Amino acid sequence: MDKLNDRLDAIAPCNGFAALSNAFYSRVPTRPVSAPTLVHVNPEVGALIGLSPAALASEAFLDVVSGRAPWPGGDTLAAVYSGHQFGVWAGQLGDGRAHLLAEVAGAQGSWEIQLKGAGMTPYSRMGDGRAVLRSSIREYLASEAMHGLGIPTTRALALVSSPDPVVRETVETAAVVTRLAPSFVRFGSFEHWAAARDTERLRELLVYVATRYYPERCVYISGELDVVQTTLGVFAEVTARTAKLMADWQSVGFCHGVMNTDNMSILGLTLDYGPYGFMDAFNMGHICNHTDTQGRYAWNRQPSVGLWNLYRLAGALHPLLPDADGLRAVLETYEGQFTTTFHAKMGRKIGLEDFGGEEDEALLEALLQLMHRDRADFTLTFRSLSEAVAGNPAAFKDLFVDRVTAAEWLSRLEGRLRRVGKTSVETAQQLDAVNPLYVLRNHLAEGAIKAAQTGDFHELDQLFKLLRSPFQPVSGAERFAAIPPDWAHDIEVSCSS
Ligand code: AMP
Ligand code: MG
């Protein structure tokens, strides 16, 4: 482990995105929230950019993460992008309430540091540039929960709250989240230049993303970057990562809620946590976003929306290529890549490392159908399998209305597992290593939010700690792993944040 710095100004930022042409962003200072309180800070993420716990506790750090001071040596800006929202071209969007402060090289790669909620930018449109405490807690916890699950995501460094009023459906209070990612470039960042028919900027962005983030996909001919081959290589990698991300989301019952192309990361990260949800009762058509009345982004549609979004990205990259054949060939690999990864992941969730073939697919499908019909709890169904294969099926069967069919399914699985030849103890251990006990259920987030709104951040901190190691049972934390209370069904999560 490299030595950590106690001072922010001991680290020299490199600011790669800011070195692009001015057309990509607007330099705009943050506007601080008043009377900021550092509600939570994440030392693990601090260490990624070389900051010690002392640095994170310093006044200088609070100044930066509340928007009161720029990052020492940084170059504060808001990026422009466009995108398709709910299937419709939305034109220019951009960082309406996000400021990129700096990019810092850490021991394991470089990280862009961004504030969300630190005031208006030229891209704020009708918005106020602010974020409320409620949605900021949801983003802070969800990104670290995803990381704990091993799913690619932006990371959360700090959460600041302020008494400043912010008007949403009701009057709430302001907050600022500091988040990190190697890059915040979106599919919509490319769509922006394609729509403007500015091939020069499109090429500049592609070369930047390729050389910085996909060096292994860069093709050089006589020392010169070959833009055609490189564009296809990058697109293939983004496609692979997106297919894998969709399989990751599906395998933990995560619904993003707003899979617009401006929320799709060019690095295949989970990005922009708004009205997301981890499913409680399993419903294949579950819609987590109250605003999504058509169910465009329902759980079972996410994989195909991932592909739809890749088509939009392909359309944006097309001007860099002589024809669309290469892009089309890559798009045709998506479904296979998704299905292979999804089956491998779901197979492991039922104890089958060697999942494959029609019989296994039928076994998995039978479980999902049964869970769907009986609205069994997604997380607990899989988690209870370890006990079930170890000879204690009660917790598993209790999740179903039709316990007889659940028991029959279990015997089918056990028959199949006998052919694998592992001991039930080995299988149980493997199951518990891939099936989380703790996920960020809406009612748990709600509990942390309600307490935080009264100035009590203990619940937030406890959840944060559990979600970092979601496979590891903690004694005394049983309520965090329990079936949600009835009121959880009534929580409405919308785009308003
Ligand atoms: P989202 O769907 O939340 O990712 O946001 C879509 C677009 O709206 C992005 O350009 C955001 O920057 C912008 N936006 C969302 N909320 C606000 C706000 N309160 N103030 C300014 N811009 C916002
Ligand atoms: Mg967004």
Q: Roughly how many Å is the radius of gyration?
A: 23 Å
Beta-strand segment tally = 14
Spatial gap, N to C terminus: 38 Å
Number of domains: 3
Largest sheet: 6 strands, antiparallel
What shape does the CA trace take?
globular
Unreliable runs: none
Count the DSSP helices.
18
Structural class: alpha+beta
Say which molecules are bound, naming each kind only once: adenosine monophosphate, magnesium ion
What's a quick, concise take on this entry?
This protein is an alpha+beta fold. 41% of the residues lie in helices and 14% in strands.
Provide a descriptive summary of the structure in words.
This protein has 497 residues and is an alpha+beta fold. The protein has three domains: 8-183, no CATH class; 188-335, no CATH class; 344-434, no CATH class. Helices cover 41% and strands 14% of the residues. The chain is built from 18 helices and 14 strands. The strands form five sheets. Strands 2, 6, 7, 8, 9 and 10 form a six-stranded antiparallel beta sheet that branches. Helix 7 runs parallel beside helix 9. It is globular, with a radius of gyration of 23 Å. Magnesium ion (MG) binds at residues 262-263, 272. The site of magnesium ion has 3 residues, from loops.
